[in-house]
Write a structure and sequence with these properties.
disordered N terminus; 317 residues; TIM Barrel; alpha/beta; 33% helix
Length: 317
Protein backbone atom coordinates (compact mmCIF):
# COMPACT_ATOMS: atom_id res chain seq x y z
CA UNK A 1 0.00 0.00 0.00
CA UNK A 2 1.16 3.49 -0.85
CA UNK A 3 -0.06 7.05 -0.42
CA UNK A 4 0.73 10.43 -2.00
CA UNK A 5 2.97 13.04 -0.48
CA UNK A 6 1.20 15.12 2.13
CA UNK A 7 2.40 18.40 0.60
CA UNK A 8 0.45 18.11 -2.66
CA UNK A 9 -1.76 21.16 -3.24
CA UNK A 10 -5.49 20.68 -3.72
CA UNK A 11 -6.55 20.83 -7.37
CA UNK A 12 -9.10 23.38 -8.53
CA UNK A 13 -12.55 21.81 -8.59
CA UNK A 14 -14.10 21.83 -12.07
CA UNK A 15 -17.59 20.28 -12.26
CA UNK A 16 -18.11 17.59 -14.90
CA UNK A 17 -20.78 17.71 -17.63
CA UNK A 18 -24.30 16.73 -16.67
CA UNK A 19 -25.18 13.16 -17.54
CA UNK A 20 -28.65 12.55 -16.07
CA UNK A 21 -29.99 9.28 -14.66
CA UNK A 22 -27.80 6.24 -14.05
CA UNK A 23 -27.68 2.78 -12.52
CA UNK A 24 -25.06 0.44 -11.10
CA UNK A 25 -23.83 -1.89 -13.83
CA UNK A 26 -24.50 -5.51 -12.82
CA UNK A 27 -23.20 -8.15 -15.21
CA UNK A 28 -25.04 -10.89 -13.32
CA UNK A 29 -28.46 -9.22 -13.55
CA UNK A 30 -29.15 -9.10 -17.30
CA UNK A 31 -32.92 -8.68 -16.95
CA UNK A 32 -32.47 -5.62 -14.74
CA UNK A 33 -29.87 -4.18 -17.12
CA UNK A 34 -32.15 -4.68 -20.12
CA UNK A 35 -34.97 -2.96 -18.23
CA UNK A 36 -32.67 -0.06 -17.40
CA UNK A 37 -31.06 0.50 -20.75
CA UNK A 38 -33.67 2.73 -22.34
CA UNK A 39 -34.08 4.78 -19.17
CA UNK A 40 -30.50 5.63 -18.21
CA UNK A 41 -27.96 8.13 -19.48
CA UNK A 42 -24.93 6.52 -17.84
CA UNK A 43 -23.71 3.41 -16.04
CA UNK A 44 -21.71 3.27 -12.82
CA UNK A 45 -19.03 0.56 -12.81
CA UNK A 46 -17.37 -1.05 -9.78
CA UNK A 47 -13.88 -2.04 -11.06
CA UNK A 48 -13.33 -4.38 -8.10
CA UNK A 49 -16.09 -6.65 -9.41
CA UNK A 50 -14.32 -7.05 -12.76
CA UNK A 51 -11.12 -8.46 -11.24
CA UNK A 52 -9.69 -11.45 -9.39
CA UNK A 53 -7.52 -11.12 -6.29
CA UNK A 54 -4.13 -12.80 -6.44
CA UNK A 55 -1.54 -12.97 -3.67
CA UNK A 56 -1.34 -11.43 -0.22
CA UNK A 57 0.47 -8.57 1.45
CA UNK A 58 2.82 -6.48 -0.70
CA UNK A 59 2.46 -8.98 -3.56
CA UNK A 60 -1.32 -8.68 -3.72
CA UNK A 61 -2.76 -7.78 -7.12
CA UNK A 62 -6.21 -7.36 -8.64
CA UNK A 63 -6.12 -8.96 -12.07
CA UNK A 64 -8.76 -7.77 -14.57
CA UNK A 65 -10.81 -10.69 -15.86
CA UNK A 66 -10.95 -10.30 -19.66
CA UNK A 67 -14.37 -11.88 -20.05
CA UNK A 68 -15.92 -9.64 -17.38
CA UNK A 69 -14.21 -6.47 -18.63
CA UNK A 70 -15.13 -7.19 -22.25
CA UNK A 71 -18.74 -7.84 -21.32
CA UNK A 72 -18.90 -4.61 -19.29
CA UNK A 73 -17.46 -2.64 -22.20
CA UNK A 74 -20.01 -4.14 -24.60
CA UNK A 75 -22.98 -3.69 -22.29
CA UNK A 76 -22.16 -0.05 -21.52
CA UNK A 77 -20.60 0.93 -24.83
CA UNK A 78 -23.35 3.31 -25.92
CA UNK A 79 -23.42 5.29 -22.67
CA UNK A 80 -20.85 7.24 -20.64
CA UNK A 81 -19.49 5.49 -17.57
CA UNK A 82 -18.49 6.68 -14.12
CA UNK A 83 -16.43 4.66 -11.66
CA UNK A 84 -17.36 3.81 -8.09
CA UNK A 85 -14.62 1.99 -6.19
CA UNK A 86 -15.19 -0.38 -3.32
CA UNK A 87 -11.72 -1.27 -2.11
CA UNK A 88 -9.31 1.67 -2.22
CA UNK A 89 -9.49 2.09 1.58
CA UNK A 90 -8.63 5.76 1.24
CA UNK A 91 -8.71 6.25 5.01
CA UNK A 92 -6.27 3.51 6.06
CA UNK A 93 -3.62 5.12 8.24
CA UNK A 94 -0.75 3.14 6.74
CA UNK A 95 -1.72 3.84 3.11
CA UNK A 96 -4.31 3.10 0.50
CA UNK A 97 -4.59 -0.03 -1.64
CA UNK A 98 -2.08 0.16 -4.49
CA UNK A 99 -3.61 -2.95 -6.09
CA UNK A 100 -6.92 -1.15 -6.57
CA UNK A 101 -5.19 1.86 -8.17
CA UNK A 102 -3.33 -0.40 -10.58
CA UNK A 103 -6.70 -1.91 -11.54
CA UNK A 104 -8.16 1.56 -12.08
CA UNK A 105 -5.11 2.57 -14.15
CA UNK A 106 -5.78 -0.41 -16.41
CA UNK A 107 -9.44 0.50 -16.85
CA UNK A 108 -8.59 4.16 -17.47
CA UNK A 109 -6.25 3.15 -20.28
CA UNK A 110 -9.09 1.23 -21.89
CA UNK A 111 -12.10 3.51 -21.40
CA UNK A 112 -12.73 7.13 -20.55
CA UNK A 113 -14.75 7.75 -17.41
CA UNK A 114 -16.42 11.07 -16.62
CA UNK A 115 -15.62 10.96 -12.91
CA UNK A 116 -14.55 8.41 -10.30
CA UNK A 117 -15.46 7.98 -6.65
CA UNK A 118 -14.69 6.02 -3.52
CA UNK A 119 -16.19 5.45 -0.07
CA UNK A 120 -15.12 7.74 2.75
CA UNK A 121 -13.71 5.20 5.17
CA UNK A 122 -11.19 2.41 5.55
CA UNK A 123 -11.30 -1.33 5.03
CA UNK A 124 -7.78 -2.34 5.97
CA UNK A 125 -5.64 -1.89 9.06
CA UNK A 126 -2.07 -3.02 9.64
CA UNK A 127 -1.71 -5.66 12.32
CA UNK A 128 1.07 -5.87 14.87
CA UNK A 129 2.86 -8.34 12.62
CA UNK A 130 2.72 -5.90 9.69
CA UNK A 131 0.10 -7.92 7.82
CA UNK A 132 -3.04 -6.30 6.45
CA UNK A 133 -6.28 -7.08 8.27
CA UNK A 134 -9.50 -6.61 6.28
CA UNK A 135 -12.62 -5.39 8.10
CA UNK A 136 -15.07 -6.61 5.45
CA UNK A 137 -17.07 -3.37 5.34
CA UNK A 138 -15.93 0.27 5.18
CA UNK A 139 -15.44 1.75 8.64
CA UNK A 140 -15.84 5.48 9.37
CA UNK A 141 -13.05 7.86 10.28
CA UNK A 142 -13.29 10.22 13.26
CA UNK A 143 -14.32 13.77 12.39
CA UNK A 144 -10.93 15.19 13.32
CA UNK A 145 -8.12 17.36 11.98
CA UNK A 146 -5.93 14.27 11.78
CA UNK A 147 -8.45 12.57 9.47
CA UNK A 148 -8.65 15.64 7.25
CA UNK A 149 -4.85 15.86 7.07
CA UNK A 150 -4.75 12.22 5.96
CA UNK A 151 -7.59 12.39 3.44
CA UNK A 152 -7.22 15.77 1.74
CA UNK A 153 -3.91 15.17 -0.09
CA UNK A 154 -5.02 11.69 -1.11
CA UNK A 155 -8.26 13.00 -2.62
CA UNK A 156 -6.37 15.76 -4.44
CA UNK A 157 -3.89 13.22 -5.82
CA UNK A 158 -6.71 11.03 -7.13
CA UNK A 159 -8.24 13.94 -9.04
CA UNK A 160 -4.87 14.80 -10.57
CA UNK A 161 -4.09 11.16 -11.44
CA UNK A 162 -6.87 10.78 -14.03
CA UNK A 163 -7.69 14.36 -14.93
CA UNK A 164 -11.38 14.00 -14.04
CA UNK A 165 -13.22 14.87 -10.82
CA UNK A 166 -12.74 12.62 -7.82
CA UNK A 167 -15.75 12.24 -5.54
CA UNK A 168 -16.11 10.95 -1.99
CA UNK A 169 -19.20 9.03 -0.85
CA UNK A 170 -20.63 9.39 2.66
CA UNK A 171 -20.92 6.12 4.60
CA UNK A 172 -23.58 4.42 6.63
CA UNK A 173 -22.00 3.90 10.05
CA UNK A 174 -23.17 2.41 13.32
CA UNK A 175 -20.77 3.95 15.83
CA UNK A 176 -22.25 6.82 17.86
CA UNK A 177 -20.09 9.57 19.32
CA UNK A 178 -17.19 9.28 16.91
CA UNK A 179 -14.26 11.46 18.01
CA UNK A 180 -14.67 14.97 16.59
CA UNK A 181 -12.69 18.19 16.72
CA UNK A 182 -14.46 21.50 17.09
CA UNK A 183 -17.89 19.92 17.40
CA UNK A 184 -17.84 18.57 13.85
CA UNK A 185 -20.56 16.20 12.74
CA UNK A 186 -20.68 14.25 9.46
CA UNK A 187 -21.87 17.22 7.38
CA UNK A 188 -19.28 19.63 8.80
CA UNK A 189 -16.55 17.04 8.15
CA UNK A 190 -17.66 16.57 4.53
CA UNK A 191 -17.72 20.35 4.01
CA UNK A 192 -14.19 20.69 5.37
CA UNK A 193 -12.94 17.78 3.27
CA UNK A 194 -14.20 19.11 -0.05
CA UNK A 195 -12.84 22.58 0.76
CA UNK A 196 -9.35 21.30 1.58
CA UNK A 197 -9.02 18.60 -1.06
CA UNK A 198 -10.71 19.96 -4.18
CA UNK A 199 -12.87 16.83 -4.43
CA UNK A 200 -16.62 16.59 -4.90
CA UNK A 201 -19.29 14.41 -3.35
CA UNK A 202 -21.28 11.36 -4.29
CA UNK A 203 -23.98 12.01 -1.75
CA UNK A 204 -25.73 8.79 -0.85
CA UNK A 205 -29.16 9.80 0.39
CA UNK A 206 -30.03 6.31 1.61
CA UNK A 207 -26.84 6.16 3.69
CA UNK A 208 -27.69 9.59 5.09
CA UNK A 209 -31.25 8.48 5.87
CA UNK A 210 -29.90 5.39 7.66
CA UNK A 211 -27.57 7.52 9.78
CA UNK A 212 -30.36 9.94 10.66
CA UNK A 213 -32.63 7.12 11.77
CA UNK A 214 -29.96 5.10 13.54
CA UNK A 215 -28.23 7.99 15.28
CA UNK A 216 -31.24 10.21 15.88
CA UNK A 217 -30.72 13.43 13.95
CA UNK A 218 -32.95 15.41 11.58
CA UNK A 219 -31.86 14.52 8.03
CA UNK A 220 -33.50 17.54 6.39
CA UNK A 221 -31.96 20.00 8.86
CA UNK A 222 -28.53 18.42 8.48
CA UNK A 223 -28.81 18.41 4.69
CA UNK A 224 -29.49 22.16 4.77
CA UNK A 225 -25.89 22.68 6.01
CA UNK A 226 -24.19 20.56 3.32
CA UNK A 227 -22.13 22.23 0.58
CA UNK A 228 -24.49 21.41 -2.26
CA UNK A 229 -22.19 23.08 -4.79
CA UNK A 230 -19.89 20.05 -4.40
CA UNK A 231 -22.62 17.42 -4.82
CA UNK A 232 -21.95 15.95 -8.28
CA UNK A 233 -23.75 12.63 -8.02
CA UNK A 234 -26.53 11.36 -5.78
CA UNK A 235 -27.09 7.70 -4.95
CA UNK A 236 -30.47 6.35 -3.94
CA UNK A 237 -31.17 2.81 -2.81
CA UNK A 238 -33.22 0.79 -0.36
CA UNK A 239 -32.33 -1.73 2.29
CA UNK A 240 -33.51 -3.66 5.30
CA UNK A 241 -33.22 -3.51 9.05
CA UNK A 242 -31.38 -5.68 11.60
CA UNK A 243 -31.82 -5.44 15.37
CA UNK A 244 -33.45 -2.06 14.98
CA UNK A 245 -30.74 -0.58 12.72
CA UNK A 246 -31.36 0.38 9.10
CA UNK A 247 -28.76 -1.36 6.96
CA UNK A 248 -27.05 -0.19 3.77
CA UNK A 249 -27.64 -3.36 1.78
CA UNK A 250 -29.11 -2.02 -1.52
CA UNK A 251 -31.66 -4.80 -1.64
CA UNK A 252 -35.03 -3.15 -2.18
CA UNK A 253 -36.83 -0.10 -3.55
CA UNK A 254 -36.05 3.42 -2.37
CA UNK A 255 -38.07 4.35 0.76
CA UNK A 256 -40.32 7.40 0.67
CA UNK A 257 -38.24 9.55 3.07
CA UNK A 258 -35.29 9.21 0.67
CA UNK A 259 -37.44 10.26 -2.29
CA UNK A 260 -38.50 13.32 -0.29
CA UNK A 261 -34.87 14.22 0.45
CA UNK A 262 -34.03 13.80 -3.24
CA UNK A 263 -36.88 16.11 -4.31
CA UNK A 264 -35.46 18.71 -1.92
CA UNK A 265 -31.83 18.32 -2.96
CA UNK A 266 -31.96 18.10 -6.77
CA UNK A 267 -33.10 21.67 -7.56
CA UNK A 268 -30.65 23.15 -5.02
CA UNK A 269 -27.43 21.41 -6.16
CA UNK A 270 -26.04 23.69 -8.89
CA UNK A 271 -23.45 21.25 -10.27
CA UNK A 272 -25.41 18.03 -9.92
CA UNK A 273 -24.42 15.85 -12.87
CA UNK A 274 -26.18 12.56 -12.17
CA UNK A 275 -28.59 10.68 -9.94
CA UNK A 276 -28.37 6.91 -9.86
CA UNK A 277 -30.09 3.87 -8.44
CA UNK A 278 -27.91 1.33 -6.64
CA UNK A 279 -28.49 -2.41 -6.25
CA UNK A 280 -26.38 -5.36 -5.18
CA UNK A 281 -26.04 -8.06 -7.81
CA UNK A 282 -27.09 -10.79 -5.38
CA UNK A 283 -30.22 -8.80 -4.51
CA UNK A 284 -31.14 -7.43 -7.94
CA UNK A 285 -34.78 -6.38 -8.15
CA UNK A 286 -37.23 -7.70 -10.76
CA UNK A 287 -37.15 -5.79 -14.03
CA UNK A 288 -40.49 -4.07 -13.48
CA UNK A 289 -39.39 -2.68 -10.12
CA UNK A 290 -36.11 -1.43 -11.62
CA UNK A 291 -38.04 0.34 -14.35
CA UNK A 292 -40.32 1.95 -11.78
CA UNK A 293 -37.40 3.32 -9.77
CA UNK A 294 -35.67 4.69 -12.86
CA UNK A 295 -38.87 6.26 -14.22
CA UNK A 296 -39.32 8.11 -10.93
CA UNK A 297 -35.70 9.28 -11.02
CA UNK A 298 -36.19 10.41 -14.61
CA UNK A 299 -39.24 12.46 -13.69
CA UNK A 300 -37.35 14.22 -10.88
CA UNK A 301 -34.33 14.92 -13.07
CA UNK A 302 -36.33 16.16 -16.05
CA UNK A 303 -38.40 18.58 -13.97
CA UNK A 304 -35.22 20.44 -13.01
CA UNK A 305 -32.63 19.75 -15.68
CA UNK A 306 -34.44 18.53 -18.77
CA UNK A 307 -33.45 15.46 -20.73
CA UNK A 308 -29.68 14.97 -20.77
CA UNK A 309 -27.99 14.37 -24.11
CA UNK A 310 -27.27 10.68 -24.50
CA UNK A 311 -23.70 11.40 -25.63
CA UNK A 312 -22.93 13.90 -22.85
CA UNK A 313 -19.42 13.44 -21.52
CA UNK A 314 -18.78 10.26 -23.49
CA UNK A 315 -15.24 9.42 -24.40
CA UNK A 316 -13.87 6.84 -26.78
CA UNK A 317 -14.16 3.25 -25.69
Amino acid sequence: MTSPTSGRAAAEFIPPPRLGVGITYLAGAPAAMRAAHGLVDFFELNPDLLAREVGRGPERRLIPQPELVDQAMRDTGDRPIVIHGLGLSIGSAHGWDAAYLALLDDLHARRHFVWHSEHLGFLVVQGADGQALHAGIPLPLPFTEASLALLAPRAAALAARYGVPFLIENLTYYLPDLPADGGRDEVAFLNDLVARSGCGLVFDLYNFHCNAQNLGFDARAALSRLRLDRVIQVHVAGGGAHDGFLMDVHSTVVPEPVWQLLEDLVPRAPHLAGISFEMLEEAALPAELVRGQLERLRAIWDRTHGRARQDGGRGAA
